[in-house]
Design a protein that fits this description.
With about 325 residues, the protein is an alpha+beta fold. The protein is built from nine helices and 15 strands. A hairpin with a 3-residue loop joins β12 and β13. Bound molecules: pyridoxal-5'-phosphate (PLP).
Amino acid sequence: MTASRSTSTPTRSTASAENPFAAGCAWIEGEYVPIREARIPILDAGFVRSDLTYDVVGVWEGSFFRLPDHMARLEAGLRRIRLRSPVSRNQIHEILFELVRRSGLREAYVETVVTRGVPAPGERDPRQGDPRFYAYAIPYVWIVRPEQQEVGTQAVVARETVRIPPDAVDPRVKNFHWGDLVRGLFEAYDRGGWLPILTDGRGLIAEGPGFNVFALVDGRLMTPRAGVLEGITRKTVIELAREAGLSMSVGDLPVASLYRATEVFFTSTAGGVMPVTMLDGKPVGDGRPGPVTMNLRSRYWDLHRDPRYNLPVDYS
Ligand SMILES: Cc1ncc(COP(=O)(O)O)c(C=O)c1O
C-alpha cells in the first residue's frame, strides 16, 4: 500500500451526523468532549508560557502506529523539561484508544499534551506547577496531500529565518515554540514555495514545520543528527533504509549538499514520506519523485499493516 491509497481520507470519516465525536474527540479534565467544544483554561502555563511537551501518533486503518515509541518520546520530553504527567502511561493508553473509539475515525491524528498547568495566583515558580493532561483525536492530517506527494512538493531553504537554537529550546522535546517555523512558512510563501527548510544559521540543515528532512547525496541518504526532533517517521525511514542496505548517514547535512541532492523528502506522522521535487524554484534531480524516496514511502505505508508496529482499536 502507498499513501496515494488515501481512499480513506479523513473527510469521509467525519461525515456521520449521529456521532457528536465524528469530527474529533478531546479529553479535557476527565471528560470526553466533541472537539469543537474542547477548551483549555486561559491561564494554563502551556498557553501563556508554552511550558509543555506533546506528542502526535497516527492511527491508520484502525490501528495506532508505533504507539510505544511515541509514548517513550513523550516521557523522555517530560523528563527533560522536569514535568510529570498527572496521568499514568496506562491511563494515557486507555484515553487515547477511547478517543479514537468514540470518534469512529479509522485514520486519525492523535495528540497528547502535558502542560505545567494553571499556577496559583501570582505564582511564577515553575516548580510549583500543577501539571495538566489533554488529549484529542481528529481526522488524519497531511502536511502534503497524497495526490501532491505523487508529483512532489515545493520547498525553499529559509534565508531570513533560522531554527531556534537547541541550547535555547531543545528540539528533541516536542514543543509549541513555533515562532521560527511559522515565520519560515511565510518566508516560503513569499518566495513562491509551499514549505520551508530551516537551517541552524551556520550552514547546516535542521528541519521544517512539522517534519524532518532527508536528502540523497552522491548515492548516500543523509538526515541531520542534531538540532531536530527525533521524529518517529525519521526513525522508521532510517530503519527501512538500513534494512534495504542503503548507505545512510545520520550526521551533519550541509545546505550545500542539499542543493546537490538528487532526491529530497520530508518525513512526519502527518503525511509519512513526502517527496520534494522543487527546491528554491529549481527541480530536484529530474524534477520528479525519485525511486529511493518512492520505495521508502511505499515500504513505510506497508509497515502500517505489520502487527509488530500496530495496535488495533476496538471500535465496538
Ligand atoms: C519540528 C518537528 N520535526 C519533525 C517532526 C516529525 O516527527 P514525527 O515523525 O514523529 O511525526 C515533527 C512532528 O510534528 C515536528 O513538529
